[in-house]
Fold:
Amino acid sequence: MADFYQLLGIDRSANSTQIRAAYKKLAFDYHPDLHPGDAHAEEMFKAINEAYHTLSDPLKKSRYDARLNSFQSYTDHTENYWREVQRQRYQRWKASQETRYKFDKDYFRIQGLAFLTFLIIAGFCFGLVHTISYFHEKRQAEIDEKNRVLVTEVFSLFQNGQVEQAFSMINSLREQHPVEFRFYAAHDSLLNSVRGKADHEFQAEHFSESLQFLEILKKQEVPVRMETLRKLAICEYHTGDYTQAIQSLKHIYNQQPWNLEALYQIGAINLVNLQNNEEALTYFTLGKEIFKKNQTSIYGKAFEIVMNPRDAPDIYYHIFEGRARANINLKNFHEAETDCNWAIFLRSENALCYKLRVIAKVNQNITRGVCNDLAMAIKLGAEDTAALKQKYCPK
Structure:
């Protein structure tokens, strides 16, 4: 609250004349006209003017004096209160800093007992931890030794030719102890050994022996490697198990639907070895669709006009040749002729499709171009063409 008496520099007992004189003097000193642009002088002039109007009016002055007395009384009370609070805080802090200990015999005896108790507890905890660690390490060493003996037993079974038993035992150990790395390492080592033996027999063309190891790999590899399936199909084919060879090839094709080699071999085995022309045609047709899809993605829809047939892989020729043979066997001679056209377009130097196209045409009663195809087939070395030449082109 502003003290107007202090502002005007007068005593609280000053009369109206003294108040007016003090006001005039200060108003003249801080008048804004004498101090243009001075914000402080302007604020002082406003305060002096307010003080004068309050103190020069007896009613306002009496009210102001009453408020001023009340404010000063409250301020004095507040200051005394907080002074006492600060004093009490200081006394408490001072008391807390005073040392209350007496360095006598009891003091040293208590400190010694406390230190001795600490040593006893620390020694007990150290001994307990050391004992637990000792028994844990001993138990772990026993487990490691037991697992090592089990791994040795697995390898002993494998070396004695009991391969199935060795894998059965190591798989059981892996299930019982899923975090024991030795069993996983042993399993991988067995797989590598079997894989090496299978590859050795395969390279030597001992397909029956290689097949035995490959069948073990098929059971133990998760997932089965594509190379294992490929070699398995080859061995099954050479041992005459054509149905199982097709199943292995289908496994590859299901995993790799873009694998034209597997797709063609499925069709060829069905066509040549099993005489299953319908299934052979199904897989050759899948190959034809892949051929068109691939060439369209490269050259566009009119790819047969733009593409260079020499750039196409040989597998496409073999697919169309196989499809032509399957269609001929199924008496789909028009389709067979179309397949021969594609095969000749891709590999015009191969004789067989000229001969197949002759067969497809004559079975449709088409004679145009037959003798030319037959002459080209003979020129390129096609076999069994004498009967066709005598029947359709005797001259």
Observations:
- The chain has three domains: 4-71, 151-256, 265-395.
- The radius of gyration is 55 Å.
- The CA atoms of residues 154 and 166 lie 5 Å apart.
